[in-house]
Amino acid sequence: MNLFMMRLFLASAFLLIILLPLQQVKAQADISTATHWYNRANYNPAAIVKTEYIYFFTNIRQQWIGVDGAPTVFNAQASQYIHKMHSAFGISLVGEKIGATQVYNPMATYAYRLSNDEDWSLGMGLSAGVFSRTVNRSLFQPEIPNDPSIPYGKVLYSTPDANLGFEFQNKYLIFSLSSTHILSINKPDQIFLNTNHRYGSLIYKSSNPDLFNYHIGLQVVNRRDLTVWEGNISLRFKRPTLLQSGPREMFDVGLTYRSSNQMTLLFAINVSRDLRVGYAYDHSFIPGFSSTGTHELMLEIRIPSKASATNGQFATQEYWYH
Fold first, then answer.
1. What does R_g of the chain's alpha carbons equal in angstroms?
2. pTM assigned to the model
3. Superfamily assignment of 2-304 in CATH?
4. Residue 225 in 3-state DSSP?
5. pLDDT, mean over the chain
6. What pLDDT, on the 0 to 100 scale, is given for residue 63?
């Protein structure tokens, strides 16, 4: 069974890397968040194979404070890994309000995991759901009031949606490949619906230092003729406890830079071992963009679960799966 799944993973990853970039895609961009370095499941469904716990994650993002109609993004996710099935199940809801439009993108996710629990993990995930956008044309502000050529009222655009992803992880590296909105491939562009994106990322992580953990990551996103890369470095400071469970993680600081001339500062506090709250501030250096910046709040909750845990077999180890 494992050999078959391994061959399936490799064949699917080959198609993801080689075939999908050949497609011509345009239209809407993926919903943007800054805290995806803490939770990659927005773009890669394979990332929900978090083996030690039931996982909840939510964030809300407000762009360009003070600008009328500026984007507001809400994201909520929940998932659980069941060790006996080598499988994770999750649900998510992403919403975005921008100008006269409102987006909802509910998804259900399944991920399968191959692993040598102590050394490495290889996951494949698939999300399926609906992408919908409502356009409230009554909010348009035409140059000619009550212009009869403009159809007023609300219009709903919706389509089935799916994301596909792969992720390899060990104690020091995370390598991810994913493709979002794959059902839009080879379909005519629709300005109010989303388009296929391809993501690749590599993260090096270390928890060996006594006083802090750190990770350094690079992500590349492509949609047809547009490619954006971003680099991130994050430090998670720890306090020694002299207990068998090891030092306690206290707070994070991070910095991200994107090739689109944007920079993000990240900060998070570990209220407890399994509860973290965070804040991110985006600033654009592109001339003409709002100088007020973008603000994002994050909440992460981990609930240890016997059904999910391999930690019962390796009780003295930290949660090294991220």
1. 21
2. 0.81
3. monomeric porin ompg (2.40.160.40)
4. coil
5. 79
6. 82
